[in-house]
Design a protein that fits this description.
9-stranded parallel β-sheet, Non-ribosomal Peptide Synthetase Peptidyl Carrier Protein, Chain A, alpha/beta, 13 helices
Length: 342
């Protein structure tokens, strides 16, 4: 599979852009475990062109992350075009347009999945962005606005016609949000459409190796995007790749192994964000990494309130010495911060 001139090999795995999750430190860890393509947190086009600090900071990408995409969202065509020009100057490998985020504050003003209510505007915006940048443009979207407008086959054709190089499809409508089961049949229909020549990446409910293998096999997608299941489990990419290549499941990680990963993530967070922000933003990840450990409340509380790196390092070592080879239940902890996940 390739996106533009970016060669990705067979059955690549994508890390979904997730607000307040897929920052550089989390992306670093996911890359270590085999994520083939990653994206920044989604970036507000209006904030970017106003030079808002929080939006500009999300443009920071590193060579070791490549191939890396910058994802933009917005409802005003001119703003999205200008944001694409700004993003182009950062030299990402991909510029992705978010037509899939279902969150009310975004979709109700016509951005994200809100664009699914005006397909002509979606197509025009995409066309203008493709014309404004030399970087391959991709799109992430959903099956449609609701059950009465599952028009993803038409949407994929029209977006391909204006020049996108790949499409990622989440198997739910905007109306579903993240409820119910993702429907991959229409994702498969897009892939099977003889008019579609660009790669089709499937997304939704990929929470482990077996379902990933089934979706590749059953629907013939070119790649799979993992979102919420990677939160607290960045090694899921290695698990999937191991299963795809051997047909066997990896042994679940022990608490001690998770401590090593959490420490790596923590050190990268401090390096990228500094002590204060790096510690604050790791708290949600610590909770997810160690979900399922018994009698963990006291240590968890200390992890979530400590403000000194040395204390946190000590607590992580305490987890190692206390729980050692203990294996938690491995259940997925959907992130309440991951507004654009999956």
């Amino acid at each position: 599979m390739r996106i533009g001139e970016v060669e990705l090999g067979e059955k690549p795995l994508f890390l979904a852009p997730m607000e307040d999750v897929t920052d550089p430190s989390f992306r670093y860890v996911c890359k270590q475990f085999g994520a083939d393509v990653m994206y920044t947190e989604f970036i507000n086009a209006d904030g970017l062109i106003r030079d808002a600090g929080s939006s500009v900071a999300k443009l920071n990408i590193y060579d070791y992350e490549r191939p890396i995409g910058i994802q933009l969202y917005g409802h005003i065509i001119e703003s999205m075009v200008e944001a694409a020009r700004i993003a182009t100057a950062c030299r990402p490998d991909i510029i992705d347009i978010n037509f899939g985020c279902p969150v009310k504050k975004i979709a109700n003003r016509g951005a994200g999945a809100g664009m699914l209510r005006d397909i002509n505007a979606m197509v025009e915006m995409t066309k203008r962005i493709v014309e404004a940048t030399s970087i391959p443009v991709t799109v992430k979207t959903r099956l449609g606005w609701d059950d009465e407008s599952k028009n993803i086959v038409e949407i994929a054709e029209r977006l391909q016609d204006v020049g996108i190089k790949a499409i990622t499809i989440h198997g739910r409508t905007r109306a579903q949000l993240y409820k119910g089961k993702a429907d991959w049949t229409l994702i498969g229909a897009v892939k099977a459409n003889p008019r579609i020549t660009i790669p089709v990446i499937g997304n939704g409910d990929i929470d482990g190796p077996v379902i990933a293998g089934e979706m590749f096999e059953k629907h013939g997608v070119d790649g799979i995007m993992v979102g919420r299941a990677s939160f607290g489990r960045p090694w899921i990419f290695r698990e999937i790749k191991h299963y795809l290549s051997t047909g066997q499941l990896m042994e679940p990680l022990t608490a001690s192994q998770k401590v090593e990963i959490a420490k790596l993530h923590f050190q990268k967070s401090l390096e990228v964000k500094g002590h204060k922000t790096g510690i604050l933003e790791m708290r949600r990840h610590f909770s997810a990494y160690f979900k399922g450990l018994p009698n963990f409340k006291e240590i968890r509380l200390k992890l979530l309130t400590s403000t000194e790196p040395e204390v946190i390092e000590g607590l992580l070592e305490l987890i190692r010495s206390t729980y050692g080879d203990f294996v938690a239940d491995g259940s997925i902890n959907p992130s309440p911060w991951a507004d654009s996940a999956d």
